[in-house]
Amino acid sequence: MTFAVGSLVKARDREWVVLPESTDEMLILRPLGGTEDEVTGIYIPLEKVEPAQFDLPDPTQPGDNRSCRLLRDAVRLGFRSSAGPFRSFAKIAVEPRPYQLVPLLMALKLDPVRILIADDVGIGKTVEACLIARELLDRGEVERLAILCPPHLAEQWQRELLEKFHIEAELVLPSTATRLERNCRLGQSLFDLYPYVIVSTDFIKSEHRREEFLRTCPELVIVDEAHTCASTGEGRGGRHQRHQLISGLAANLDRHLILVTATPHSGKEEAFRSLLRLLNPTFTNLPEDLTGKENEQYRRQVAAHLVQRRRGDIQHYLDADTPFPVREDKEETYTLSSDYKKLFEKVLKYARETVQDPAEGNRFRQRVRWWSALALLRSLASSPAAAVATLRNRADTTGTDTPEAADEVGRRTVLDLMDDEAAEGVDVPPGSDIGEVATDEQKNRDRLLRMAREAEGLKGKKDAKLQKAIDLVKTFLKDGFQPIVFCRFIQTAEYVAEHLRNALKGVEVAAVTGNLPPKEREARVLQLAEAQKRVLVCTDCLSEGINLQEDFNAILHYDLSWNPTRHEQREGRVDRYGQANDKVRVLTYYGTDNQVDGIVLDVLIRKHRTIRSSLGISVPVPVDTDQVVEAIFEGLLLRGQSHNDSEQLTLFDDSFYKPQKDQLFKQWEAAQDREKRSRTMFAQETIKVEEVAQELRAVRSAIGSGVDVESFTQEALKIYGGTVQAERKGIIFNLKETPKPLQEAIGGHEQFQARFELPVQDSQLYLSRTHPVVEGLATYVMDSALDALGNGVAKRCGVIRTRQVERRTTLLLMRFRYHILTKRGEMEHPLLAEDCQLLVFAGSPQNAEWLDSGMAEELLQARSDANIGADQARDFLQKVIDNFDHLRPHLERVAESRGQELLDAHRRVRTAARMKGVSYRVEPQLPPDVLGIFIYLPSLPS
């Protein structure tokens, strides 16, 4: 290449900076002071390109005391290839919380990067994983990225990557793969063609797709909901296929792998160990118990790959408080109407009869009967609508001919499994008609249909659960909440939504269920969010991974989940970082004379909640939830004949399942103790707070913090004629009196409300350093200062009289450009880094006394105490410019010194530079750019 990365060239009558993507014939250039949107390519054989040098300021155009500060901030905010310890932070549209740097620093100590991010729900694991990915991409260590996730989360990942990390990724789903493959050449995989992809784990796990993916997979893979890929020792089913897929990816020991999950254990130690083995094959031989001084070395080894923190660990970290909403947990109850209660007793009698019937020794039929009876009880407890659908449907035995197969189908259709391959269909109501033979079949069918007609007659006014729920939702709305009502079945959600629409005037109500494909679910939620008063009724198709905190702030569990982890996932949709409301409300709703609700609440939900309150995190049920539920409900359905079929149902009559409950609680409490020890071991003591603080200071110095973004934006807009009005929860900007070119530069806004940190309310902008408003404003300020004909407030030079100095002091605003070269073997990868620094000296250029850089920051805040004439200001500036050659040797030494600091920081955070055959070097591009010259004179005696 003719020109080095970072060098300054002149072409098309303007100055440009050479970018790393350039080749010998094609220069990829960014205008001096321009944005990424203005990057262009120039073909050297056809256009004239010559070296350039940045001119010194024009002394005839001095500014005031604000000029240097505004120009410095505009330059730093305009950097996208900043200096500092990280290559990526100038390119992202979010300012990470200090605690979110911990996984990044951990990752950069590993080669390859193999890390499990297991932070609690709502802390920001997606941002933490994306930070690592963006940094590896910007360091040139990887060129391609794949994210594996459940299909319903794919678009959320795509949006997160684009909006916060400026990575445009293609979705690889059953609905998109064929279209993407049409663009491939013969023998080319779509993973070869598209560098950044978001892939449905369940789509790619099949044997045919899996082999192609393993062959052409990118160097960096993020696995979301990684617990669904853990091995439980069973060699079948979707979980096994997912584990085979991830194990195949991990088998390439050079591949970077980031696993993300809030539930790494999922209640099973073997599943957790299988995730650890993906990170490091040597973890196969870890001791069963990692506690004790004798196992400290093993804990340290695991801790290098695992970060696992509770909210309490990060809520107050370093100099930042992370705002989580206050959670208000309540319970509400209902009692069945007399007619509903009669039907419940009939259904319970029917269920008992079917499961106690020996079925002529046919175990397969017994298992089908068992699951059908259980399904019927769940549906009836949910709503008349779900009960009708279940009573009229046949039990699903498709593809089953063994008791084991019948159990698998039963669990899939009845229980709230978290990671089944058919999870997208879990809100479909099961069937209860088991289809017996001959006359018994018709008799059974007639009985079910009679009960279905009774259930149909209970809809509406006779449904006490529904009627009280309507009042509860009204209370939510009256108290200023926007609630989500979680239901178990599609029919229940649609039924509840219909009656809420009729009862709530002036309130928008929408139902979102598994009947809608993921894209339409998102569209319906976004449409609903536009309403001022809104209620979302949904099934568990929205309970996992989907972030709803920006538009909703309350949860009503209309139906209890039979898996307490699912309950926690539901609540995590609104109770998370980024929630705009100070408070979230969670309401657990159950029937006091509904034994089905009573068992689940008594055995699972309350125990889960107690452990979470004590430990600060969720601990999954330590055995298979389905086995627990099955064992306990056997007590309800298989009670002796001495019990009257029409007996009064009571909420906590646990006499018939107390042994199972006591055994479960004993195991659960043991799991709680293990989890407490694990969290103590892996809350990340391997990365010291001082280390995070050091890198955080370096980042803020290089690119500016969120506070700098806020102060720059407010000050610049005020100077240009805008008004800024601070409100309790945001800032209102009115720009009607600002210049039209400025309004155009920031997207045509005349008035808007904004915040400079999350969370934001509806209609507020979140102004990060890469937001178009901030980026456009910084570009406008810088361009108007650099343009000799510009009429901007920020100028490249100035002379100020101030009491803050006792002798003539000159401040230089400098831009240093560096070429970072990473060498692996014989291959060199070039990077560009830009640094903005303030240098200050006292006296004349010929006898400059260089002062501490802290003095420069103080001078930026100096006030002008007296006017100075234009001719006098020009004379002072001209003397510095005429004698500037006396200063250049020092400026070049500073450039060399800063280059060494940059190299040290680059190496420091990537301590896996112990990587074999990897070396770095930094070349400063000389001479450095003098952006501004500002002279401070002592005030004259009065």
Uncertain stretches: 640-651
Superfamily (CATH H level) name of the domain at 96-309: Tandem AAA-ATPase domain
Question: Strand sequence of the main sheet, in spatial order?
Answer: 8-9-7-10-11-6-12
End-to-end Cα distance: 61 Å
Q: Helical region count?
A: 31
The fraction of residues assigned to DSSP E strands is 15-25%
CATH class of the domain at 96-309: Alpha Beta
Radius of gyration: 33 Å
The total count of strands amounts to: 29
* Outline type: elongated
CATH topology of the domain at 96-309: Rossmann fold
Overall mean pLDDT = 85
Helix content: 40-55%
Secondary structure class reads: alpha/beta
User: Sheet bearing the most strands, described?
Assistant: 7 strands, parallel
Q: What is the second-level CATH architecture of the domain at 96-309? A: 3-Layer(aba) Sandwich
